[in-house]
Amino acid sequence: MSELFSPTWMQAYLNQWNAEPELVDALATIHFNSTIAYGFKDAPTPKGVLMIESGRAIAAGSYTNQALNWDLRANPADWQKWQAKGLNMMGLSMAYMSGKLKFEVGDYASMIKDPRMVGPFLKSFSFMGRVLSHA
Q1: What CATH number is associated with residue 123?
Q2: What does pTM read for this prediction?
Q3: Quick one: which of 48, 65, 69, 100 has the fewest CB in 10 Å?
Q4: Mean pLDDT by 10-residue block, N- to C-terminus, for the chain (135 residues)?
Q5: 114 in helix, strand or coil?
Q6: Backbone φ and ψ of 99, nearest 5°
């Protein structure tokens, strides 16, 4: 099993992302292009990065000072819990309001109000657990 957000893990996450047509297609319709970082709270920088172009993941790896659209941070135990169970709307709201999920970069409020974005965002958590078996 690869370390969470390591280059190997991020590459496996890219593969799982692109294997989800509901996610890719939904984001393609809104021309979603983003660089999304994942990491741990209280760390000076994120650990892994996923680059999205028109909904499709095109690159993944370590954070190397890329400009970010989103930087998601949580404690390792919370990331593991979300990998195992995913996140629904209630869980996302609770995680954000309690500070378990921090948006170091990115506008949570605008994302959560846009159903074209919130559905795919939640979906991206649902297949994180599959990365463990493919990384």
Answers
A1: 3.30.1050.10
A2: 0.91
A3: 65
A4: 86 95 94 96 96 97 96 94 87 92 91 86 84 60
A5: coil
A6: 85, 5
Q: How deeply is 134 buried, as exposed, middle or buried, from its count of CB atoms within 10 A (0-12, 13-18, 19+)?
A: middle
Q: Which residue has the tokens 């998601």?
A: 72
Segment (H or E) for 2:
none
C-beta contacts of 91-96 below 8 A and 24+ residues apart: 92/118, 92/121, 92/122
CA atoms within 13 A on the CB side of 132: 11
> 1: how many CB neighbours lie within 10 A of its CB?
9
Considering its fold, how many domains does the chain have in total?
A: 1
